[in-house]
Specification:
Elements: H1 18-53, H2 56-61, H3 70-86, H4 89-120, H5 126-131, H6 141-155, H7 161-184, H8 189-197, H9 202-213, H10 215-231, H11 234-240, H12 249-257, H13 264-296
Helix pairs in contact: 1-13, 3-13, 4-7, 4-10, 6-11, 7-10, 7-13, 8-9, 10-13, 12-13
Length: 300
């Protein structure tokens, strides 16, 4: 036996090799980072729930209380019921759902064949159209809102859901075309040509081959368009303010903040009504969104 104490290293200690030690450290750091980002992401949402459960008097006396009392948790459903019925959020949700659904449906109906044509077909000014798809985003919404307001007033579309659908379509079509065009470019042309040889028309090849293979990108575009229509506020304020029956959720929540007598718990409950559907739908479609964004970025 040697008198000198043997030094314990990652190679001869609890770790079989240096690589295992480095893997362990990397895994610990990754878990720590995940926990850190989970906390800073989820805490604002939890704070909204916390504020919705507590009345204004309790918030004023204990502004930093992290956990509501048991009685306050029991009052939380009553707060949502008051927002849903007394403050007309039921109607706002219905209006937002109709507007978002119509915007998504019509945007996909136009953007899918448009992106396919820009990817597969040959026609004049194809390159000009492809490079100019996103030029509409050079004009901020504030710049075009006033001319749109004047035009909509003259033709009678101000205050109507159909007019809002047209506005949201014009705002989301460029990005929808760009994303779908990038994804269509990753699909081999041989698959469509095989379908044409088997007797399919061009439209049948799109429906039976291209669209099923492009489902992740289509779901990604649909989610993007739905989120824009669900959360948009500026155009809703300009064109729907004088039509309370057609108010959307963001506009209804903004009008709720203007009422001096409204408890802050109702404001937080209304904010949760807007936020929760977005979170749930994204979590349900996250797999498609990841695939659509990744594949669309490979080749474009």
């Amino acid at each position: 036996m040697t008198s000198q104490a043997q030094t314990v290293t990652p190679a001869n200690g609890i770790f079989a090799s240096r690589e295992n030690f480095e893997t362990f450290i990397a895994r610990v750091l990754r878990i720590m980072f995940l926990i850190f980002f989970l906390v800073i992401t989820a805490f604002p949402f939890y704070w909204m729930v916390n504020m919705a459960a507590r009345p204004y008097q309790d918030i004023a006396v204990h502004p930093t209380r992290l956990i509501p009392t048991a009685d306050q948790w029991q009052e939380l459903p009553n707060t949502f019921q008051a927002v849903w019925e007394d403050y007309n959020f039921k109607k706002y949700v219905q209006n937002s759902l109709i507007l978002s659904f119509l915007t998504v449906l019509l945007t996909l109906v136009i953007s899918i064949p448009g992106a396919y044509a820009a990817t597969r077909l040959e026609f004049k000014l194809k390159n000009v159209m492809s490079t100019g798809i996103l030029l509409v985003y050079m004009f901020p919404a504030v710049v075009i809102s006033i001319p749109l307001f004047v035009v909509y007033t003259k033709i009678g579309l101000r205050g109507k859901v159909s007019g809002m659908v047209l506005i949201y379509m014009s705002a989301t079509l460029p990005v929808s075309l760009y994303m779908l065009r990038s994804y269509f470019a990753t699909i081999p042309k041989d698959l469509e040509e095989a379908a044409l040889i088997d007797g399919c028309t061009r439209l049948q090849a799109i429906v039976r081959v291209t669209i099923p293979l492009s489902l992740p990108a289509i779901v990604t575009v649909a989610l993007y368009v739905w989120m824009i229509a669900w959360n948009e506020f500026l155009y809703a304020l300009l064109f729907l303010l004088d039509q309370p029956d057609n108010w959307t959720l963001p506009l209804g929540l903004q009008q709720l903040t203007k009422a001096q007598e409204v408890d802050i718990s109702y404001l937080m409950a209304g904010s949760l009504v807007i936020t929760v559907p977005v979170i749930l739908i994204y979590l349900l479609l996250e797999r498609f969104v990841t695939a659509g964004l990744t594949a669309g970025a490979v080749k474009g």
